[in-house]
Structures are given as C-alpha cells and as structure tokens.
Amino acid sequence: MRLFLKAASYIFHPLLMPLLGTILYFSVTPRYVEPELVRAKFLAIAIITIFIPIVVFFLLKNIRVVDTIYLKQVKERKFPLMIQCILLLLIIKMVFDPYDDREMYYYFVGILFSAFSALIMVFFKLKISLHQMGVAGVLMFLVGLSAHFKINLLVTISFFLFVNGWVASSRLNSDAHTYPELGIGFLLGAIPQLILFNLWL
User: Using an 8 Å Cβ cutoff, are 135 and 17 in contact?
Assistant: First the structure.
C-alpha cells in the first residue's frame, strides 16, 4: 500500500502536468491538427517544462540552493518557481497562439497564475502542495474541455478526481504536507483554470 501511495508522487510529479494536459488536449480535441505540428509542440513542451527544469535543478543542487527535487523546505522553492514562471511565459509567447490554440494558450496562462501564486506563498513562508496544484489544474482543464467541445469525458474526469485523492493521500502518507497545504494547493491549481474559462469556453 505504501508503494502504491508513493507511486503517485512520481507519476504525477508537478513537472509532468503541463505535458500531461497537452497530451490530453490533443487526444480529445475534435479539431484536425497536423501530426507533425502536434509532435513539435509535444517536444517543445517536454524540453521547456521537463528537461530544462531538471538541468536547472541539478545546477541549483550543485550550488546548494536546493536539496531534493521535492523542494521540501519553503526557502528551496523560490528560485525553481521563479524559473518555472519564466519558462511558462516562454511557452505562452512562443509555442501557443491565443487565436489558433485558444484552449492550450489559456491552459498555460492558468498554470502560470498557479505557479506565480505558489511563488507569492513562498515570500510569506507558506508551503503548499505543488503536486496537488498540478493535478487540480489538469482536472479543471478536462472539465472545461468537456463543456467546450460538448464531449463526454466523464470517465477521464472521474479518473482524475481519483488521482487528486491518490496524490493527496500520497503526500499525507509521506508527511510532506498537511491538510491545509493540500487544500490550498488544490485551490491554486483549480481556480485560475476556472476563472479563465470565461476567455475560451
């Protein structure tokens, strides 16, 4: 059981959530998109949101700014979150267009607001669950896609509701977070996506 709970922290790591949202979007969208363009966007998202942050993490670890990839101490989160915000701005500016890729553009704007909110929390020495924030954002994005395209995503949405509980249980089991930290993380992930529905639904 402990192994099952621990697996959630790896499978649904915050760094993977932007790419997961992108994969889900291109899996359910009824619009035709050139396969080469989809692959190019996947590669760009993977490089910017996964590979670059991993390289940056090792650089920060070498200069002893962070200890682990889970950023257990509040003070460790400042520079990674600042860099994440910059990388998300790069995606919004260079990868997705607000006219041609409206849904994905505002999905990443929502992620940026979530990351910036988490950064603000750091300055107030408040630690929130970045895992919970990430999966909550994906869940709310799926709800929006279901309403926007008028397609039944009930099974997928139900699965991600389970994932939210799985991740929360995982973080509690590992003593990484408290209930308030998980609750705030969920809200910071879900609310920006919910607010931005007004711009693309």
Answer: yes
Contacts of 136 (CB under 8 A, 6+ apart): 164, 185, 186, 187, 188, 189, 190
Distance in angstroms (rounded) separating the CA atoms of residues 134 and 78: 17
Judge contact between 15 and 54, C-beta under 8 A: yes
Q: Enter the tokens of residue 23.
A: 């994969």
How far apart are the C-alpha atoms of 94 and 100, rounded to whole Å?
13
- 3-state secondary structure at position 16: helix
Where do we find the tokens 């257990």? Answer: 72
Give the pair of three-digit tokens for residue 40. 């190019």
DSSP labels for 112-167? HHHHHHHHHHHHTT----HHHHHHHHHHHHHHHHHHHHT---HHHHHHHHHHHHHH
Residue 131, CA distances (Å) to 29, 31, 90 in order: 26, 30, 22
- Name the region of 160 (left: φ>0; alpha: ψ -120 to 50; beta: rest): alpha
pLDDT higher for 61 or 181? 181
Tens of pLDDT, residue by residue over 164-193, are 999 999 999 888 889 999 999 999 999 999
Token digits for 124?
């107030």
What pLDDT, on the 0 to 100 scale, is given for residue 63?
A: 86
Question: How many angstroms separate the CA atoms of 136 and 144, rounded?
Answer: 12
Sorted by where each begins, the domain ranges of the chain are 2-200
